[in-house]
C-alpha cells in the first residue's frame, strides 16, 4: 500500500483528491496538510511514500517546500498545477519534482482519463525513502548494443522524453555548445499551455535559441520543442503540427517525430530516448535504425522512470545505453 500525503490550502481540493486517490487500488491518503510548513512537520512524524502538493499556497509555497523536502528525503513529489502557474510548475520540475498533474477546476473536469493518468503517474513513482546524499559523479561508461556508429555528418538530433524528462532536458541544454551544427527536435510529454513556459525556461539556460515549434516553421540549427496537445513531424525541412488522434495515450507522441525524421534525414540522424513511462519512441527508433541512423537511450540508474528506454532495449532497437551525464556529453559532442 502506497501512503500518500496531500498538501493543498483548499479544503475542497484536499477532499476531492483524497477521495479520488482512496478509490484507487494500493493507494491510501494518510495525511492531508494545509500548507508547506505543516507538510514538512508531518514528514518528520509520518511514514510517507509520495507527496502530492499544490504549487501556490500561503505560509510556505510549493517551491520552497519542495526545496526543503529535497534536502531532507528522497520522497517523490507530484505537483498539482493549473494554467495560471505554468512557470512555477516548470521551476518545480527543475528543482526535482517527479511530475505534475493539472488541477481540475471543477468536479465535471474529473473524467476517467484524468484519474487514470493520475493513477499511472503515482504508480510510476518508484523510489527509495531515506536521507538524501550528494550524488556520486557518474563516469559515462557506454553500453554498446550494436556495431553501428554515429553518422560522420549529423543533419539532425531528435529527443523524446516523458516522466522526469524536464529535469533531464535542462541538464542537456546547459551542456550545449554556443552554436549548433544541426537542429535538435524535442518531444516532451506535457499538456497544452505548459510547453511554452518550458521552452522559455530552456532558452534561459543556453546561448542557443530554444523555442516552442510553430506549424510550417523552417527548421534551422536551433532547438525546437513540440507544443502540448499537438504532434510534431518533419516535412521537407519544415515542422508540421497536427492534432490527429493520440498514440500511446498521448499527444504529442515521440514516435511520430522520430518516424518522420527518419524518412527525411535518413542515415544522418541520431535519436535519444530519455526517462519516461510506456512504450512511446520504440517504433520510431526502429525506423531510424532501419534508415541507418543512430539510437541512444538513458540507462536505468539515472532514469526517473525506466519505461520507454527499457522497452526500446527489449525490442532491440537501441545502439547505445548511457547514463544521463553521458548523454549530456555525447549530445554536446555530436552537435558541436
From TrEMBL:
Concerning InterPro entries, the annotation shows: CheB-like, CheB_C, CheY-like_superfamily, Sig_transdc_resp-reg_Me-estase, Sig_transdc_resp-reg_receiver
- Gene Ontology cellular component list: cytoplasm
- Annotated CheB-type methylesterase domain ranges read 151-336
Q: Protein biosynthesis among the record's keywords?
A: no
Annotated keywords: Chemotaxis, Cytoplasm, Hydrolase, Methyltransferase, Phosphoprotein, Transferase
Annotated EC: 3.1.1.61, 3.5.1.44
Main subcellular localization, coarse class?
Answer: cytoplasm
Where does the UniProt annotation locate this protein?
Cytoplasm
Q: Where are the transmembrane segments?
A: none
State one molecular function term (GO): protein-glutamate methylesterase activity
The annotated active site, in chain numbering, is 162, 189, 280
Which EC main class describes this enzyme?
Answer: hydrolase
Query: Record's superkingdom?
Result: Bacteria
Which residues does this entry mark as bearing 4-aspartylphosphate? 54
Q: Name one Pfam family in it.
A: Response_reg
> Post-translational modification, briefly?
Phosphorylated by CheA. Phosphorylation of the N-terminal regulatory domain activates the methylesterase activity.
Q: Which GO terms describe its biological process?
A: chemotaxis; methylation; phosphorelay signal transduction system
What catalytic activity is recorded? L-glutaminyl-[protein] + H2O = L-glutamyl-[protein] + NH4(+); [protein]-L-glutamate 5-O-methyl ester + H2O = L-glutamyl-[protein] + methanol + H(+)
Q: What is known of its domains?
A: Contains a C-terminal catalytic domain, and an N-terminal region which modulates catalytic activity.
Record's family?
Belongs to the CheB family.
Physiological role: Involved in chemotaxis. Part of a chemotaxis signal transduction system that modulates chemotaxis in response to various stimuli. Catalyzes the demethylation of specific methylglutamate residues introduced into the chemoreceptors (methyl-accepting chemotaxis proteins or MCP) by CheR. Also mediates the irreversible deamidation of specific glutamine residues to glutamic acid.
UniProt protein name? Protein-glutamate methylesterase/protein-glutamine glutaminase
Q: Which organism is it from?
A: Enterococcus casseliflavus (Enterococcus flavescens)
Question: Source organism lineage?
Answer: Bacteria, Bacillati, Bacillota, Bacilli, Lactobacillales
